[in-house]
Amino acid sequence: MASNAKPTLAFIGVGKVGTVLARLWSDNGYRVVALYNRTPQHAKTLAQYIDAPCTQSAIEAVQQADITLLTVADDTIESVANLLTQQANGDNLKGKAIIHTSGAHGKDLLNALAHHGALTGSLHPVFPFADVATAMQYLPGATFAVETDDAILQTWLTEMVTALQGNTMVIPPGQKSLYHCALTIASNYTVTLYAIAQTLLAELGADQQAADTALNTLLNATVNNLVEHGARDALTGALVRNDVGTIQAHLEALQEQDREVLEMYKQLARLTLPLVAARGVSIDALANLLRKEDSNATNYS
Ligand SMILES: NC(=O)c1ccc[n+]([C@@H]2O[C@H](COP(=O)([O-])OP(=O)(O)OC[C@H]3O[C@@H](n4cnc5c(N)ncnc54)[C@H](OP(=O)(O)O)[C@@H]3O)[C@@H](O)[C@H]2O)c1
Fold this sequence. Notes:
Layout: E1 9-12, H1 16-27, E2 32-36, H2 40-50, H3 58-64, E3 67-70, H4 74-87, E4 97-100, H5 111-115, E5 119-125, H6 132-138, E6 143-148, H7 151-163, E7 167-170, H8 176-186, H9 188-203, H10 208-234, H11 238-241, H12 244-257, H13 259-278, H14 284-300
Parallel strand pairs: 1-2, 1-3, 3-4, 4-5, 6-7
Antiparallel strand pairs: 5-6
Helix pairs in contact: 1-6, 9-10, 12-13, 12-14
Bound molecules: NADP nicotinamide-adenine-dinucleotide phosphate.
Protein backbone atom coordinates (compact mmCIF):
# COMPACT_ATOMS: atom_id res chain seq x y z
CA MET A 1 0.00 0.00 0.00
CA ALA A 2 1.34 3.46 -0.92
CA SER A 3 2.19 5.41 2.23
CA ASN A 4 -0.38 8.16 1.47
CA ALA A 5 -3.19 5.82 0.31
CA LYS A 6 -6.24 5.32 2.51
CA PRO A 7 -6.33 1.87 4.18
CA THR A 8 -9.06 -0.50 3.05
CA LEU A 9 -11.58 -1.59 5.68
CA ALA A 10 -13.41 -4.80 6.66
CA PHE A 11 -16.13 -5.18 9.26
CA ILE A 12 -16.84 -8.27 11.34
CA GLY A 13 -20.23 -7.57 12.95
CA VAL A 14 -22.71 -5.28 11.24
CA GLY A 15 -25.01 -4.25 14.08
CA LYS A 16 -25.62 -0.58 14.84
CA VAL A 17 -21.97 0.48 15.15
CA GLY A 18 -20.63 -1.63 12.26
CA THR A 19 -23.40 -0.47 9.92
CA VAL A 20 -23.05 3.24 10.72
CA LEU A 21 -19.23 3.32 10.58
CA ALA A 22 -19.05 1.23 7.38
CA ARG A 23 -21.55 3.52 5.66
CA LEU A 24 -20.00 6.78 6.89
CA TRP A 25 -16.42 5.83 5.98
CA SER A 26 -17.62 4.51 2.64
CA ASP A 27 -19.37 7.85 2.03
CA ASN A 28 -16.16 9.67 2.99
CA GLY A 29 -13.64 8.11 0.64
CA TYR A 30 -12.73 4.79 2.32
CA ARG A 31 -13.17 1.50 0.49
CA VAL A 32 -14.99 -1.18 2.51
CA VAL A 33 -13.72 -4.41 0.96
CA ALA A 34 -15.35 -7.09 3.13
CA LEU A 35 -18.27 -7.65 5.48
CA TYR A 36 -18.83 -10.67 7.70
CA ASN A 37 -21.66 -11.12 10.16
CA ARG A 38 -23.10 -13.94 12.29
CA THR A 39 -26.44 -13.59 10.47
CA PRO A 40 -25.36 -13.39 6.80
CA GLN A 41 -28.57 -11.61 5.70
CA HIS A 42 -27.69 -8.56 7.85
CA ALA A 43 -24.33 -8.24 6.04
CA LYS A 44 -26.13 -8.52 2.69
CA THR A 45 -28.50 -5.70 3.68
CA LEU A 46 -25.54 -3.42 4.50
CA ALA A 47 -23.73 -4.50 1.32
CA GLN A 48 -26.56 -3.00 -0.75
CA TYR A 49 -25.72 0.46 0.61
CA ILE A 50 -21.95 0.36 0.17
CA ASP A 51 -21.44 -2.18 -2.57
CA ALA A 52 -19.07 -4.29 -0.45
CA PRO A 53 -18.63 -8.06 -0.80
CA CYS A 54 -19.76 -10.38 2.01
CA THR A 55 -17.40 -13.18 3.02
CA GLN A 56 -18.17 -16.71 4.16
CA SER A 57 -15.83 -16.55 7.14
CA ALA A 58 -14.31 -13.98 9.46
CA ILE A 59 -10.72 -14.72 8.38
CA GLU A 60 -11.58 -14.08 4.71
CA ALA A 61 -12.70 -10.58 5.69
CA VAL A 62 -9.42 -9.95 7.53
CA GLN A 63 -7.40 -11.18 4.55
CA GLN A 64 -9.09 -8.67 2.20
CA ALA A 65 -8.46 -5.48 4.19
CA ASP A 66 -5.73 -3.33 5.73
CA ILE A 67 -7.85 -2.66 8.83
CA THR A 68 -10.55 -4.98 10.19
CA LEU A 69 -13.00 -3.62 12.74
CA LEU A 70 -14.47 -6.19 15.14
CA THR A 71 -17.79 -4.42 15.71
CA VAL A 72 -19.33 -7.26 17.72
CA ALA A 73 -20.67 -7.09 21.31
CA ASP A 74 -17.99 -6.62 23.99
CA ASP A 75 -18.41 -10.15 25.34
CA THR A 76 -17.82 -11.61 21.85
CA ILE A 77 -14.66 -9.70 20.88
CA GLU A 78 -12.17 -12.05 22.53
CA SER A 79 -13.81 -15.20 21.17
CA VAL A 80 -13.85 -13.75 17.63
CA ALA A 81 -10.17 -12.83 18.05
CA ASN A 82 -9.38 -16.38 19.18
CA LEU A 83 -11.41 -17.83 16.32
CA LEU A 84 -9.49 -15.67 13.85
CA THR A 85 -6.16 -17.00 15.12
CA GLN A 86 -7.48 -20.56 14.63
CA GLN A 87 -8.89 -19.76 11.18
CA ALA A 88 -5.57 -18.10 10.21
CA ASN A 89 -4.30 -21.66 10.36
CA GLY A 90 -0.69 -20.68 10.91
CA ASP A 91 -0.85 -17.95 8.25
CA ASN A 92 0.95 -14.87 9.37
CA LEU A 93 -1.33 -11.92 10.22
CA LYS A 94 1.67 -9.58 10.03
CA GLY A 95 0.75 -6.22 8.50
CA LYS A 96 -2.98 -6.70 9.13
CA ALA A 97 -4.51 -4.23 11.56
CA ILE A 98 -7.38 -5.54 13.69
CA ILE A 99 -9.20 -3.28 16.12
CA HIS A 100 -12.37 -3.29 18.21
CA THR A 101 -14.77 -0.45 19.05
CA SER A 102 -15.53 -1.22 22.70
CA GLY A 103 -15.31 1.66 25.16
CA ALA A 104 -14.95 -0.48 28.26
CA HIS A 105 -12.12 -2.76 27.11
CA GLY A 106 -8.57 -2.25 25.98
CA LYS A 107 -6.76 -3.71 23.02
CA ASP A 108 -5.53 -6.56 25.25
CA LEU A 109 -8.71 -8.44 24.22
CA LEU A 110 -6.89 -8.85 20.88
CA ASN A 111 -3.63 -10.21 22.36
CA ALA A 112 -4.03 -13.55 20.58
CA LEU A 113 -3.99 -11.69 17.25
CA ALA A 114 -1.03 -9.51 18.30
CA HIS A 115 0.92 -12.71 19.06
CA HIS A 116 0.29 -13.74 15.44
CA GLY A 117 1.78 -10.46 14.18
CA ALA A 118 -1.36 -8.33 13.76
CA LEU A 119 -1.34 -4.64 14.68
CA THR A 120 -4.02 -4.19 17.30
CA GLY A 121 -5.88 -1.30 18.86
CA SER A 122 -9.26 0.06 19.81
CA LEU A 123 -11.25 2.97 18.45
CA HIS A 124 -14.28 3.91 20.51
CA PRO A 125 -16.84 6.39 19.17
CA VAL A 126 -18.09 8.53 22.07
CA PHE A 127 -21.67 8.40 20.84
CA PRO A 128 -24.89 6.61 21.84
CA PHE A 129 -26.04 4.47 18.88
CA ALA A 130 -29.76 4.24 19.66
CA ASP A 131 -30.61 3.60 15.99
CA VAL A 132 -28.81 3.66 12.64
CA ALA A 133 -30.60 6.64 11.05
CA THR A 134 -30.03 9.01 13.98
CA ALA A 135 -26.39 7.96 14.36
CA MET A 136 -25.75 8.40 10.59
CA GLN A 137 -26.97 11.97 10.95
CA TYR A 138 -25.31 13.01 14.22
CA LEU A 139 -22.13 10.91 14.57
CA PRO A 140 -19.99 13.12 12.27
CA GLY A 141 -18.10 15.50 14.57
CA ALA A 142 -18.07 13.05 17.51
CA THR A 143 -14.96 12.25 19.55
CA PHE A 144 -13.26 8.85 19.23
CA ALA A 145 -10.92 7.37 21.85
CA VAL A 146 -7.86 5.87 20.17
CA GLU A 147 -5.70 3.24 21.82
CA THR A 148 -2.77 1.58 20.04
CA ASP A 149 1.00 1.20 20.44
CA ASP A 150 1.56 1.24 16.70
CA ALA A 151 2.43 4.58 15.08
CA ILE A 152 1.14 3.67 11.59
CA LEU A 153 -2.17 2.39 12.98
CA GLN A 154 -2.49 5.50 15.16
CA THR A 155 -2.07 7.69 12.05
CA TRP A 156 -4.58 5.65 10.06
CA LEU A 157 -7.16 5.81 12.86
CA THR A 158 -6.64 9.53 13.44
CA GLU A 159 -7.16 10.19 9.71
CA MET A 160 -10.32 8.05 9.71
CA VAL A 161 -11.69 10.13 12.59
CA THR A 162 -10.77 13.35 10.80
CA ALA A 163 -12.60 12.10 7.70
CA LEU A 164 -15.77 12.10 9.86
CA GLN A 165 -14.99 15.65 11.12
CA GLY A 166 -14.30 14.06 14.52
CA ASN A 167 -11.77 14.58 17.31
CA THR A 168 -9.49 11.99 18.85
CA MET A 169 -8.82 11.45 22.55
CA VAL A 170 -5.85 9.28 23.52
CA ILE A 171 -6.48 6.97 26.50
CA PRO A 172 -3.48 5.77 28.54
CA PRO A 173 -3.01 1.97 28.48
CA GLY A 174 -5.05 0.14 31.12
CA GLN A 175 -7.44 3.07 31.74
CA LYS A 176 -10.32 2.16 29.43
CA SER A 177 -12.62 1.04 32.28
CA LEU A 178 -12.34 4.36 34.11
CA TYR A 179 -12.71 6.26 30.82
CA HIS A 180 -15.87 4.28 29.96
CA CYS A 181 -17.22 4.74 33.48
CA ALA A 182 -17.09 8.53 33.01
CA LEU A 183 -19.03 8.31 29.74
CA THR A 184 -21.58 5.93 31.27
CA ILE A 185 -22.25 8.37 34.11
CA ALA A 186 -22.72 11.26 31.64
CA SER A 187 -24.87 9.41 29.12
CA ASN A 188 -26.58 6.28 30.47
CA TYR A 189 -27.26 7.60 33.95
CA THR A 190 -28.70 10.83 32.59
CA VAL A 191 -31.31 8.54 31.04
CA THR A 192 -31.80 6.85 34.43
CA LEU A 193 -32.26 10.23 36.16
CA TYR A 194 -34.75 11.30 33.48
CA ALA A 195 -36.75 8.10 33.98
CA ILE A 196 -36.79 8.63 37.77
CA ALA A 197 -38.10 12.19 37.27
CA GLN A 198 -40.77 10.83 34.88
CA THR A 199 -41.88 8.33 37.53
CA LEU A 200 -42.13 10.98 40.26
CA LEU A 201 -44.21 13.21 37.98
CA ALA A 202 -46.43 10.27 36.98
CA GLU A 203 -46.99 9.45 40.66
CA LEU A 204 -48.33 13.00 41.04
CA GLY A 205 -50.84 12.20 38.33
CA ALA A 206 -49.16 14.40 35.69
CA ASP A 207 -50.18 13.79 32.10
CA GLN A 208 -47.26 11.89 30.50
CA GLN A 209 -47.01 14.02 27.39
CA ALA A 210 -47.05 17.24 29.41
CA ALA A 211 -44.45 15.81 31.81
CA ASP A 212 -42.17 14.69 28.95
CA THR A 213 -42.44 18.08 27.27
CA ALA A 214 -41.48 19.79 30.54
CA LEU A 215 -38.53 17.46 31.13
CA ASN A 216 -37.30 17.67 27.52
CA THR A 217 -37.24 21.48 27.60
CA LEU A 218 -35.50 21.43 30.98
CA LEU A 219 -32.88 18.91 29.86
CA ASN A 220 -32.22 20.65 26.53
CA ALA A 221 -31.71 23.96 28.32
CA THR A 222 -29.39 22.27 30.84
CA VAL A 223 -27.27 20.78 28.04
CA ASN A 224 -27.16 24.19 26.34
CA ASN A 225 -26.05 25.79 29.61
CA LEU A 226 -23.32 23.14 29.99
CA VAL A 227 -22.10 23.77 26.45
CA GLU A 228 -22.19 27.55 26.85
CA HIS A 229 -20.94 27.95 30.43
CA GLY A 230 -19.28 24.70 31.63
CA ALA A 231 -20.33 22.59 34.65
CA ARG A 232 -19.64 25.09 37.44
CA ASP A 233 -21.62 27.95 35.92
CA ALA A 234 -24.36 25.77 34.40
CA LEU A 235 -25.53 24.77 37.87
CA THR A 236 -28.85 26.37 38.81
CA GLY A 237 -31.36 25.55 41.53
CA ALA A 238 -31.73 25.40 45.28
CA LEU A 239 -28.21 24.18 46.14
CA VAL A 240 -26.43 27.03 44.40
CA ARG A 241 -28.93 29.53 45.88
CA ASN A 242 -28.13 28.07 49.32
CA ASP A 243 -31.88 27.52 49.76
CA VAL A 244 -31.56 25.09 52.65
CA GLY A 245 -35.32 25.13 53.34
CA THR A 246 -36.08 23.99 49.78
CA ILE A 247 -33.59 21.12 50.01
CA GLN A 248 -35.11 20.15 53.37
CA ALA A 249 -38.57 20.11 51.72
CA HIS A 250 -37.25 17.87 48.90
CA LEU A 251 -35.84 15.42 51.44
CA GLU A 252 -39.13 15.32 53.37
CA ALA A 253 -41.14 14.75 50.18
CA LEU A 254 -38.88 11.87 49.11
CA GLN A 255 -38.93 10.39 52.61
CA GLU A 256 -42.67 9.88 52.08
CA GLN A 257 -42.47 8.88 48.41
CA ASP A 258 -39.39 6.74 47.75
CA ARG A 259 -36.55 5.99 50.20
CA GLU A 260 -34.22 4.67 47.48
CA VAL A 261 -34.55 7.86 45.47
CA LEU A 262 -34.03 9.82 48.71
CA GLU A 263 -30.64 8.14 49.24
CA MET A 264 -29.68 8.85 45.62
CA TYR A 265 -30.77 12.50 45.98
CA LYS A 266 -28.67 12.98 49.12
CA GLN A 267 -25.61 11.42 47.49
CA LEU A 268 -25.98 13.58 44.36
CA ALA A 269 -26.45 16.68 46.54
CA ARG A 270 -23.23 15.84 48.43
CA LEU A 271 -21.35 15.37 45.16
CA THR A 272 -22.71 18.73 43.93
CA LEU A 273 -21.37 20.68 46.94
CA PRO A 274 -17.85 21.18 45.43
CA LEU A 275 -19.49 22.90 42.41
CA VAL A 276 -21.53 25.08 44.78
CA ALA A 277 -18.38 25.99 46.77
CA ALA A 278 -16.55 26.78 43.50
CA ARG A 279 -19.23 29.41 42.84
CA GLY A 280 -18.27 31.10 46.12
CA VAL A 281 -21.44 29.98 47.96
CA SER A 282 -21.07 28.80 51.55
CA ILE A 283 -21.88 25.10 51.81
CA ASP A 284 -21.81 24.80 55.61
CA ALA A 285 -25.60 24.85 56.16
CA LEU A 286 -26.22 22.45 53.27
CA ALA A 287 -23.52 20.04 54.44
CA ASN A 288 -24.97 20.18 57.99
CA LEU A 289 -28.46 19.41 56.69
CA LEU A 290 -27.22 16.39 54.72
CA ARG A 291 -25.21 15.15 57.73
CA LYS A 292 -28.26 15.56 60.02
CA GLU A 293 -30.47 13.67 57.55
CA ASP A 294 -27.91 10.85 57.46
CA SER A 295 -27.75 10.51 61.22
CA ASN A 296 -31.61 10.55 61.37
CA ALA A 297 -31.70 7.78 58.76
CA THR A 298 -29.18 5.72 60.79
CA ASN A 299 -31.17 6.21 64.01
CA TYR A 300 -34.43 5.05 62.37
CA SER A 301 -32.94 2.00 60.60
N1 LIG B 1 -24.27 0.83 20.88
C1 LIG B 1 -23.53 1.87 21.25
O1 LIG B 1 -24.04 2.93 21.63
C2 LIG B 1 -22.01 1.77 21.17
C3 LIG B 1 -21.27 2.97 21.22
C4 LIG B 1 -19.89 2.90 21.08
C5 LIG B 1 -19.27 1.65 20.95
N2 LIG B 1 -20.02 0.51 20.96
C6 LIG B 1 -19.31 -0.78 20.82
O2 LIG B 1 -19.44 -1.25 19.48
C7 LIG B 1 -19.49 -2.69 19.49
C8 LIG B 1 -20.74 -3.16 18.77
O3 LIG B 1 -21.88 -2.65 19.44
P1 LIG B 1 -23.31 -2.59 18.70
O4 LIG B 1 -24.16 -1.72 19.57
O5 LIG B 1 -23.17 -2.30 17.27
O6 LIG B 1 -23.80 -4.11 18.89
P2 LIG B 1 -24.98 -4.84 18.12
O7 LIG B 1 -25.92 -3.84 17.52
O8 LIG B 1 -25.51 -5.86 19.09
O9 LIG B 1 -24.27 -5.60 16.91
C9 LIG B 1 -23.41 -6.68 17.08
C10 LIG B 1 -23.22 -7.34 15.72
O10 LIG B 1 -22.24 -8.38 15.85
C11 LIG B 1 -22.74 -9.53 15.16
N3 LIG B 1 -22.11 -10.72 15.74
C12 LIG B 1 -22.35 -11.25 16.97
N4 LIG B 1 -21.53 -12.33 17.15
C13 LIG B 1 -20.79 -12.44 16.02
C14 LIG B 1 -19.79 -13.35 15.59
N5 LIG B 1 -19.35 -14.35 16.40
N6 LIG B 1 -19.24 -13.19 14.36
C15 LIG B 1 -19.67 -12.18 13.54
N7 LIG B 1 -20.62 -11.29 13.88
C16 LIG B 1 -21.17 -11.42 15.11
C17 LIG B 1 -24.23 -9.49 15.35
O11 LIG B 1 -24.82 -10.30 14.35
P3 LIG B 1 -26.39 -10.62 14.24
O12 LIG B 1 -26.84 -9.83 13.05
O13 LIG B 1 -26.46 -12.09 14.06
O14 LIG B 1 -27.02 -10.17 15.54
C18 LIG B 1 -24.50 -7.99 15.17
O15 LIG B 1 -24.62 -7.66 13.79
C19 LIG B 1 -19.42 -3.11 20.97
O16 LIG B 1 -18.07 -3.39 21.31
C20 LIG B 1 -19.90 -1.86 21.70
O17 LIG B 1 -19.38 -1.75 23.03
C21 LIG B 1 -21.38 0.55 21.04
